[in-house]
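Quick note —
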Amino acid sequence: MSVLWDALNNIDTFAISLLLLSLGIALFYEMINGFHDTANAVAMIIYTNSMKATYSVIMAGIMNFIGVILGGIGVAYVIVHLLPLDIMVSSDQNATLVMIFSLLISAVVWNFGTWYFGLPVSSSHSLIGSIVGVSVAFGMMHGFSFSQSLNWEVVYKILTALAISPLVGFGFAFLIMKLSRIIVKNPKYFRTPTTSENGLKKKKPNFWMRTGIIATGAGVSFAHGSNDGQKGIGLIMIILIGILPTYYALNMEAHQYKIMQTRDAASNLAKFYADNNDNLTKLVNEKRLISALKIENTIAECDVNQVYNTTLEISTKLDGLKSYSELSSDDRWKMHTAVLCSDNFFGQAEKAYKSIDKDKSDYIADQRKQMITSTEYVPYWVIIAVAFMIGIGTMIGYKRVVHTIGEKIGSKPINHMQGAVSQAMAMVTILLANFAHAPVSTTHIVSSSVAGTMVAEPDGSVQKKTVNTILLAWLFTLPITALMGAGIYVCLSYFTK
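Predicted structure written out below.
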């Protein structure tokens, strides 16, 4: 917080207003994420009457917080790296702000609208769709081809994860529910929240089932925080870097050890370049290694022919440095740009060497991880703010989505065993995605897991109307938010000229 406080005391009122407005929109997006995704995480707990809604929300907030803390920042920066590098190294504050506001407005409008109608729509889909639309619009307006506007390899990876993860959740839940019917013979584990031995409504599950439902719900909340929470973190980091580059382009609170880590990694990569100059030059000539930037400009650090000098300069400038505050404002931004562009080049080299020399490819990957520690970081207050807003969103808006998850997916209300199984399998699926640094949809994984348990029941089935509505929302969220993001970007770019 000391860095933020220092920044607020040294920037003008207009910059403060832009910062607060953009942070407000980003945090509002996270609150709506709570409307959808975190509500999914506690839906079964609340619907089965295993725990009061207030306590469920508190538990979800705590587990989300822990999930964000322990989940790393891999998913956050996968989202960030969807954006054109041209924007990320641009000193044009207007371009960055237009991009931020465009994708946030698009994602917020769609998420809020679908929540109003009780549709379990993916916040991940809406955010990624908005980023895709904004990036393509940016590219087209600056002379890129469609293929150059985005890192389509990353997009393909994300879309694959978004498509496969619900199927995995459905399959796991179906199999485990079938096994549960075979292994567990006591009918009390298969009661619905609206039935009991005496016909009363909303009777709590027995102790063991209740414990299982609460534990698996906590697990889903943890998994959600470790995946979805990072998306909001990525957005806020884009905002901070775009509006306050002097203070957030580099980790100003980095210990000297971290600075030395970046310095040594840059030095090692420069040496690698020198030792493998012939191979790298050949790859450059074959266009297998290209300039990071797609637009001709004066940023020498992103010139494919200057990578060695740039990487070596990173090492030289950081030699003996105890704190990034010792660098001037210009040097901080130059350092940020140099690290991003060098990392982009060696990322290409890492992939190229996989088919040439696996050991060298692994070496490059290790050194890149060390080098980017000064640019890929997250202040703790950002994590806390995101976790808090997700919890608030859950408290305000959980009822609409809980009702859909509990009663409208299946042909009959979900029973206690189905609640525990669907949550457990959703948790496993999300954690597997985290391992692969793949952004996935908690909404669609939970919904598909519930559907899997419904189909597995002897007399169970799904409500085609609800499932079709969810599928349509799943299919149309990406293109609609992409079009919205692109349209908003074009309009804002026109009015801010």
